[in-house]
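Sanity check

After download, print the first record. It should look like this:
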Amino acid sequence: MEKPTLDKFPKEVLARIDIQKAFIVSRLIVAAERLQIFRLLHGKRMKTEAIGRALQIHKHYLQAFLNALIALGLLDKVDGAYGNTPFAEKYFIDERSIYWTRQYSGECVQDYEALMLLERTLATGKIYDSIKHIKRPSYTDAMKRDRSQAENFTQMLFHFHKGDAEALAGYLDLSQHGAVLDVGGGSGVMSIALAKKNPHLRATILDIAPVCKVGAGNIRRAGLSRRIRTLPGDIHDSLPTDYDVIMMCDIGPVSKHLLRNAYKSLPANGLIVLVDRFLSEDGTKPLDRLVEYFAGSAFGVATWKDMAQAAESCGFHSVKAANVYRDVWYITGVKPSVRDSKSEGRSLRNRRP
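Expected structure tokens:
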């Protein structure tokens, strides 16, 4: 999935925008997505009044709103009727699912709210919710309460991670492994890609029940129900055994608690796989992941090197980090056999002064 990053917009559109006012432009695009104007105009043209009625936009702002979208190169106007430009069709229809449209634009609005008090966040070390004494449910709790949010969030990630999943399947050598536990694997996108690449492989997705239900549908549509199953549960509890690969993809902060649980559950020579957009070693890239931290993102600011060292500190050997696909890092490690552990212990003792 390709995002409409700034470099995709025509240069003449963005060249005169003051960087300190750019948030207004961004907010207009978020509003357009929340109203689903690009989906409304997909494959057809509509007059001003018809758009206003369909999207319930007040006449005081309707014309200016449509003109702003024209100025941004997202809409055009022919004989008094508005339609999507090829740019809007590509990045707001072809490149994203309806689930992304529903879920992501709502998350952007929450980010705007959080950034309203950024100076206080910087001064106090507290996120917006703490400053305002707001107690919002976590993603997990929200999805337990609202099935539609569980579907939107899970399916958004299913489409978003397809490229990551295919790249991972091409990168990992699982010829000597037979069973994957996909921790927090919800949508099934990673397990499906691995199962298609490795016909001998079976997989289990561990996630909360509403998410597992959505993932089961994706697995069924992929024709892999006999090889991939879902297991409702809490990823922070002890992990099930009988798996020689444990994978964690885009699940938020991977704590040492999670890594130690994985280590305990894996057999000797079992493989840990971490997949995420971890920050670069110097902590400056990718920029969008870094700045999300100031809006209260739970992903934190761990670098790929931090995660590799965390895996090593929890006992994994032969830890490798590879940036194979875009800005996504794949980190792998092996649980040593008892003999390897003893050998490592003797080697360490021999190196003591």
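If your output differs, re-run the checksum step. Summary of this record's structure: The longest strand covers residues 317-325.
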